[in-house]
Amino acid sequence: MVPVAVKRLLHCMGGALFPAKCVGCGRLFHHNAGTPESINACIKAHATGFAHAMAPHFCPNCRGQWTPVKSPLCFRCGLVFKSREGEDHLCGRCLDRPGAFTRARAAGIYADALQTAIHALKFKGKVGLAGPLGRLLYDTFQQYWLPNEIDMVAPIPLHRRRFRQRGFNQAYLLVKRWTLPSETVIDRDLLVRTRATAPQTGLDRRQRRININNAFLANRPGQSAGKRVLLVDDVLTTGATADACASALIRDGAKRVDVLTLARAL
Ligand SMILES: [Zn+2]
Ligand SMILES: [Zn+2]
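Above: query sequence and zinc ion SMILES. Below: predicted holo structure tokens.
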């Protein structure tokens, strides 16, 4: 087997010779200039940051267009406040109806290059994006959680019909290469989606909650009992799906459920 470091080196050298097609605008570009410095930067890029991580997939212009989530935000649901002044606080919705999960966080705003990358992964089958997007998600995980704060990482499941259509669960692809303490498990089957819910797009907050209510069940009852679970998904919109999953886990005895997504819709 070819070691990962050698694969990266070959990939980064190839980036200087062969142009790539930008996932965002479709233009051809070279993701590095072929100098030792740019090849070195490309190898390092595999370790950190959105713009760097996306270098092989997005042209320099497109990969600059993304907005990381920054305070002030709701310290429960992670909603990014329009006002860029002040400190984190609870949003109105969380004050009214706290819901089942304790805390949700995301890497960036669901727009521009991040949205395009998620669409390409989910709907165009560009699974090569799962690596860099997974690293971005992992960086965000490390930003907000200590590794020993989480016992189980669980991707939000697709209904088996959608899974068959797509062939993969994008949320699982994002976490499957994570390096975690040996006692932390990545459990792709912790929850099962019992109902094929109508797509949430176009529904308001209340309709989304009704649509998704009771759509999830613990796959093996008691599996999450006493555990601190991190649910992961690509996008958090109203939080209705994450909340339905968290409810199922809390009913199963989970001690605490947090949520991490790549993107947060405004
Ligand atoms: Zn582009
Ligand atoms: Zn909130």
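The chain has eleven helices and nine strands.
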